[in-house]
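User: Predict the complex.
Assistant: Input components as received:
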Amino acid sequence: MNFIAKAGERLIPVEVHRHGGGYSVQVGERTFVVDLVAANQYLQSAHFDDGTQLLIAHHRDGVRHEISFGHRSVTLELHDPLAMRRKRTEDTSPGSASVTAMMPGRVVKILVAEGQEVKKGDGLVILEAMKMENEILAPRDGHVAGISVTAGVTVERGAELVTLVS
Amino acid sequence: MPTVAVYSEADRRALHVLFADQAYPIGPAPSAESYLRIDRILEAAKRTGAEAIHPGYGFLAENARFAQACIDAGLTFIGPSPASISAMGSKTESRQRMRAAGVPIVPGLEKAVDSFGEIEDFARSAGLPIMIKASAGGGGKGMRLVERMEDLRQSFERVQSEAASFFGDGAVYAEKFISSPRHIEVQVLGDQHGNILHLGERECTLQRRHQKVVEESPSPVVDEALRARLGETAVTAARAVNYYSAGTIEFLMGPDREFYFLEMNTRLQVEHPVTEMVTGIDLVKEQLRVAGGEKLSISQDDVRRFGHAIECRIYAEDPNQNFAPSPGLIRYLNLPEGPGIRNDNGVYSGYTVPLHYDPMLSKLIAFGSTRGEAIQRMKRALAEYRVEGIQTTIPFYLEIMESSDFQTGNFDTGFIDRFLHAEDRKTQVSSEDLEHGIAVAAILEFEEAQKVRIASETDSAWKRTGRLEGVSRRT
C-alpha cells in the first residue's frame, strides 16, 4: 500500500508490505522492518530490526497523525497519492488568512474592529484559559475582513477568530 | 476521617470527587459561581454534617472572610485565624506590620491603588523595573513586570482586569523589582498555644511567568548560619501576626545573600512535599492537630533535616508552543515509581482536563540522600512518566535536570527565561523520529484499511442473515 507522507513542507513517498509476522516499510530512501503490536487501546510497541524499541501513542484526526514517543512527538499527514495529485491541481492561493485559537479558551475581549488595518504583532483578541489571559497577535500586516467570535464565548483549539486580508 | 468534596459542574469527574466519601455540587464551572461561593460551601458543610473545612491551596484558602464565615457557622477552619490571614493578605498591611517587627522589606507602595496616575508616580520615584501585583492576588496570578515606561499602562490595565476577574478586587500594588534574585521561602508551623517553629527553607527560584515550576529543599546556596537567620526572621514575622497552623514566609534574596520579606502565604503550599520529605513531618497532620486545639507534636529542637528533595509541577502546557495551555482528554497515564519517588497526583487515564482552572495536573517529588542523587532519581522518574493525549511540561523538566547551571545550583529567577531563549536549545524533531513516526502511522493506516475491508465483507453477511430472519419472523 502506498502513501505520501507530508511533514511540514516535505513530501515523502511511503510503501507498506506485510513481512513475516510484521511489516516492511519504505520511507523515502530507508527501509524499516517493524514488529508492531498494540500494548493497549492507545499504546503501540514498535520493535525495529536494528533493535530499537519504542512505546508509541498514536492519535489520528482525519489525514493527520500524531505519534508520541513519550517526551518527543511528531505530527504528519498521510495522503492517498492519487487523491493528493487531484487536490493539488484544484488548490488556489487566496489572499486571506484566518487567525485561529492556538488553544481552547474563553474570548475575553476583541481588540480590533472589522475593516481595521493591523500590523504584524498587533493584538487581535484576548483569550483566557486556565487562569491566564493570552493575547492573540496578528501573524502579518493586513486588514480585518471578519471577526468570527464575540466576547464571552468559549472556543475550541483551531477555531477561527479573525480573518485578515492582505 | 470521612471526607466531603465540593465540586463545580466542570469537576464532576475530578479525582478529589471520585475519592471522597461524600460529594456536593456547588455550582457551574466559573469559580466565581462555585469555588468562590462561601454560602454554597457552608451549605454543603451543613447538609453533610461536616465539622471542619480544609481550604486547600487555591480559591478561598487565603480569604479571611471565608475563615470567619466558617467560624461563625460553628465549623473549624483548618488554617490560621481570620485576623492573621487579613493582616498578611493585604500586601500593604503586611509590609507595615513587618517593618514594625523589624523584618527587612523591599521598597514599594504604602497602600493599594486604583488609578494609573499613582502607579506612574511610584514608577518614576522608585525607578524601573517595578512589579505590579493584584493586591488580593497570590500564587503567581495577576502580576506583571514592567521594564519600560511605555509598557506601564498596558500592564497596569491587564493586572487590574485579572485582579477583578480572579480575586474579585481590582486594587493593585507595586514594588521595586530586585535584579537577579533568588526566591527562598521558609516553612513555619504554629499552634494556638503560642508555639511557632520553622522547618527550614525551600528554594523556589525557578519560575516561569512568576509561577513556580521546580522547588527544592534545602537550597543549594543556604548554609547552616544563613538557615538559622532565615528561620529566626520567619518565626519573628509569623509571631508578629499571632500565626498558627502551617504557613510560609517568602523572601527575595539578592546575590549578596541579603534577604527581604516578600509576602506570607497563610496556607499550605503546593511545594510543601519537599519539606515533608527532608523533615519527615506530615504538615497536613500537624494542621489537623493544631485546628483541633492541640499543641504541636514537636519543638524546634526536634526538627531534623536529612537528604534533599526536588519537586516538579506537572502542568498541562505545551513547552514547544510557548507553554500554551493544553487541556483535553488524557488517553493514557503512567506515573513513575521507585525509591524516593512521590506523586501528588490529581488526574487519571480517561480524565478530561478542564480549561477553566489552573493547569497543574500533579506534582512529582524525588528524594535522595544528596542533591545529586535527588536529581538522578528525578531524571529517571521523568523519563518513565507518560501522559498521552495532552501536552505537559515533563520534557521541559528533563531539559532543566540536564542543565549544568541547574546541576551546580547556579541560577536566579531569570534562569527559565534565559534557558528558553538559549540558542543551542534543541527542540527540532529529529529525522530519525520523523521516519519512525511515518513508518508506524503507515502501518496503522494499512491495518485500518484491512479491517475496513474485512468488516464490510462481514457486514454484508450479517445483513443478509438479518434480512432472512426478519422475513422469516414476519411470516
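Chain A has two domains: 2-88, 96-165.
Let me know if you want any component modeled separately.
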